[in-house]
Each structure stands twice: as C-alpha cells, then as structure tokens.
Write a structure and sequence with these properties.
73% helix; Gly_transporter; 9 helices; globular; mainly alpha; 215 residues
C-alpha cells in the first residue's frame, strides 16, 4: 500500500478544490435555469471529475467513493448556488476562486500520484488532469466551448503548480512548504492571466508555407 498522502494541508486543498469546482458547475446550471437536481449533478461531476480520472489512471481507490464528505460538499455547494442570486457570483471573483481550486487540485494530484510510485513526468500530468478535467467535463456536458480552448493561461498555471510540487519532492523542505509554494505560484500566474489577459502565442502558418500551399 502506498504511503498516505493526505495530511491536514492536502485535506484542506482537497476540500477547497472540490468546493470551488462544484460551485462553478452549479452556477453554470443556474445560469441555464436548470433544476436543483441538474445543479447537483453539475456540481458533482465538476468537483470530482479530475480526481476520479486521476485515481483510475494511478490505480488508486476513487477518492470520493470512500470519503462521504466529498459528495456532501458538492451537493451543499449546489444548495448554496440554488438559494443565492447568480448576480452575487458575476465578475472576476469566481475566476479567481477557480484559480485557487485549479492550482490546489494540481498540487494534490501530483502529490498523490507520487505517493503511489508514479514517476515525475507522469505525476506532473496527473496534477494537470486533476486540476482541469472536471472543468472540461462541465463544459462538454453543457455544450459550450471548453476553457482549455481559450488562449488565456489556464492549463499552464496547473502545470506550473504540478511541476513545482514534483520538483520540490526531491528537496529536504517540509511537504507543507513545497505544497504551499507550488499552489501560490500557480495561483499568481493564473491571477496575472485573468488580470492582464496573458496568453501563450497561438499557432500560425508561416508565410512561406502558405505561399507553397497556394501555389
């Protein structure tokens, strides 16, 4: 059996990430004027989607099946969205909150993968999957363009947090310090992307290639 990875720090990161992603899913259903059942469904699949895929890939027990609090947090978050006006959640506030969930979940995913003996590069990918797949499932089910298709930095922030978490695992620093720094670094990048619309360069055909195609 792998070493238990969930310490108090990662416990809080886990609950925080689940709650924030669940809220984003519930609010999407609320804006579409759906029923509470639909809001609860969106909250659940968004909150646990990334962690579920991660656990299946690293051959770990699916985390929310054995922990009764996870589903309760998702449904409780859906209830909060149900009884509050959607205008309370408009603007950039939810984007920043989503950034917290994204980077916290990326750290959690990488740390858990390492505890199951996953090698460094796949462990980084597990962190990225943990942080992003729930939102991808939410967008696909809702029939809207996924956030990963936007040029604004998103996956990159998760990758930064996951990479710092894995890199820090070889140091002698306390785990809580590594995890905290990794989360804050990714959050700083994501916040800057939201504030200043930072984006990576998009692919463009070279002029020479276009001339050859046209010729």
């Amino acid at each position: 059996m792998p070493e238990a990875v969930l310490t108090p720090v990662l416990d809080w990161l886990d609950i925080l990430g689940v709650a924030i992603f669940a809220l984003s899913g519930a609010l999407l259903a609320a804006k579409e004027r759906q029923t509470f059942v639909t809001m609860g469904f969106f909250a659940l699949v968004t909150g646990v989607g990334g962690g579920t895929v991660r656990d299946l890939l690293i051959d770990a027990p699916v985390f929310w099946i054995s922990d009764p609090w996870i589903a309760a947090v998702c449904l409780g978050t859906a209830l909060i969205a149900w009884i509050t006006p959607t205008r309370w959640w408009e603007g950039k506030l939810l984007d920043y909150a989503d950034g917290v969930g994204l980077t916290a979940y990326a750290v959690l995913g990488s740390a858990k993968a390492l505890s199951y003996g996953v090698q460094p590069v796949p462990a980084i990918l597990m962190g990225i999957i943990t942080g992003t797949v729930g939102g991808i499932i939410r967008d696909v089910v809702a029939g809207r363009p996924s956030i990963i298709m936007r040029p604004e930095l998103y996956v990159t922030a998760a990758a930064l947090s996951a990479s710092l978490c894995v890199a820090g695992s070889v140091t002698e620093l306390p785990n809580w310090a590594v995890w905290s720094v990794a989360t804050l670094a990714g959050l700083a990048l994501r916040s800057a992307a939201i504030r200043y619309n930072l984006a990576l360069p998009s692919y463009r055909e070279g002029r020479k290639g276009l001339e050859i195609d046209e010729g």
